[in-house]
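User: Hey, quick favor. My workstation is busy. Could you predict this chain's structure for me?
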Amino acid sequence: MPTTPTPDSQAPALELNLTAGPKWKLEQQSPDTFTQIIVYRGLHCPVCKEYLGTSRKLYEQFLEKGVETIHVSMDSKERASEAHADWGLDPVPMGYGLTREQAADWGLYVSDPIQDSEKAPFAEPGVFWVRPDGRLYLAAVSNSPFARPNLEFLLGKVDFIKDKEYPARGQAA
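Assistant: No problem, here it is.
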């Protein structure tokens, strides 16, 4: 069973290839507020298409609040590139090739294919916010495509978190 990293501790390392551009490394990110990592199931998932569409719609608003977003999956470069293009996600960076080990490090559930459109095992959804110093602030992990945090709600809380210096919660085991 996956174990989600502890909030306010150092986030697990994450290095991914992008569908366009250089390799992406979490340790090299320098957002003003958070790096937002949105893990999606893959090209086969219509719920992911809708969710990442919302992420794309809110992308600039998140940037204005100092939150830099990346979409991530276990898909191949070809499938991630197809999702990025067909779903209209540019300019949000699209990472691909998340490994089972990386998924486990982040506490993500992994599912085996049950239909033809699912080409390989894939990570179930997750949303993570990582502080500029690399500490995990928020972790929302699901075993189902139907349970994900509301991105508009999260966007509306960024200023509150900054203004009140609201701490990460959930460190007590």
